[in-house]
Amino acid sequence: MKTLRFTVALSLAGLACLTFVGSGLGQATNTSKTFIDYFLPTPITGSLSRDVWGAPAVGPRDPKNGLEDETLKQWCYWDGQIIKAPDGKYHMFASRWDQALGHNGWKVSKAVHAVSDKVTGPYLDKGLCWPDNQDGKGHNVTALVLPDGRYAVVVSDTRPGDVFVSKSLDGPWEQLGKIKGQGLAATNISILVRPDGDYMIVPRSGKVFISKAADGILGPYTAQGPSVFPEGIPNLEDPVIFYSGGLYHIVVNSWSTRNAYHLTSQDGKSNWINRGLAYDPTKDIVRYTDGTVNHWEKLERPGVLIENGHVTAVTLAALDVPKNQEKGNDNHGSKIIVIPFDGAALDRDLQNAAGTYSNATASPSPSATPPQTAPLMPPAAASPSRSAAPPRPAPLTPPAPATPRINGPSVFGVRPGSPFLYSIPATGERPMTFAVEGLPAGLTLDSATGRITGSLAKAGEYPVTLVARNARGENKRPFRIVVGEQIALTPPMGWNSWNCWHGDVTQDAVLCAAKAMVAAGLDRHGWTYVNIDDAWQGVRGGPFNGIQPNKKFPDMKSLADQIHALGLKFGIYSGPWLTSYAGYIGSSCDNEDGTYDWIVAGNHNEFMRIGKDKGMSGSEKKSLLRHGKFPFFKQDARQWASRGACRPRPPPRGASRAVRLRPAQTL
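Above: the chain's sequence. Below: its structure in token form.
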């Protein structure tokens, strides 16, 4: 199996390979830092006071930080997941219960929504998320933004895996259904939309579960293997999963030891590495800008806020005494605190350390000996037998700004009546909304994704203005839609399978490349084509007697649909000769019925390539790399268009060599 690597390189054939380099490569890194070292001082929003509820050991604290009932006459709060809205406000989703019930009141907790102008608070409790659904019941509350721009709130334990969705962070919230999967116990779940569009869940069990993008947030989810939690650490729970810096991360808490640990993986499914201590309530992680420190008895239910691809804040449910000592009406309780976090530095240091941890192991029990972990960089006095790799140069391309910026061409061509698909390429902080001023009738815009679809029957030019907005600002750009026969108005930017896979290309490899292009954010810079080159062809058949795919592509229509769902265009290759360069059938034939003599004679391999495992001989190349007596250009074009691939213009009859049919209308 070949490894799909990506380096950004533009050619008319598209995107050959992609290797991603982080923004901080080549910078010095502390040799022993772990997640806990990236917490930042917390700004004082109100004032530090001892005249608030809580054990004296907590110390003077800011009751305006996070979400709490300052009087402790009504609520205890737990959980806490922040989403930043397009208008710049911060929305927190949490659970609460009557403080008079003590900590055991969590069993009847309810899901609530709170809002703040600042990430650190104070957050104003706006009430129950779904008051008319089981009286608002919900615990272990988390929230996320869905690929279609909607928002989802997920609860577990007391309502295992119930999912609610809304177009607005302010609701109303509609119950979508219940998460399902073989062997999935929806307790303490954390959920993530992966860069490839799939959904990923890690529950209390520590197993990674994946639901395909097409199946949606409800699943079914499939376990990727056994628990990824480090062995020997007792009572691990409350995982939070996130993706940043090219890695998947888990922070998971051991409730009995009160320590949490940070794990990373390249694919999010296997080879998880224990990076060491994530947080410890006895350490000085809750420290204010004036140096004052708080020490809470319990810090659980971690959550993260990611902005511009990095963690900028961590939320924690904080309790001032042991859980069994919080009885209710006793001046003890819980709240949600928000701590600023330097996720950009964490990601930079992990990128600097990339490739140095292949021998890292899971950790033993933390009680007698500290966990064996992989710090962000190996000690300076590393083994002399291993020479250090030369430093990788830092990338010269500056990162995209947080404000919206529309990229890509200023013109797009389409034939009259042909399906139209254009995704507005824009960088900047998400969530982002889109608009098109002067959009002609026949086209529609998805304001959440920026995808324009439909068709235009009348030839001509249609000037419009593209608009992108987020919490940081707005960007407008003039744009021309040209409807006519001349449509390749700009060089196509995208990916072509030949440069990476040659004849080994498969349906899965093509879909993986499409997802990787979106995950890398290249679509936001104007990369839009995903083209299959040679080696997909089988035999002729179907309603048009067009080329059918070989068994490496079991469902070409499904592949096209999945690529389109990513907002990308799908193209395909063929040649005008009897065979392609790689030895598969072409778009002409010597037999009127579309059969090929070498296939009838059995002179092919399992993928219908001529010459079985050896490929074409020299004599066969001389005899077959020519135009056949009967052209099948129209039949093949209709076949491809029916599956959502390109609808190419036939090559000239007198062409002297095989040509790739240019994706004149790649859909």
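Confidence is low (pLDDT under 50) at residues 1-31, 355-390, 647-667.
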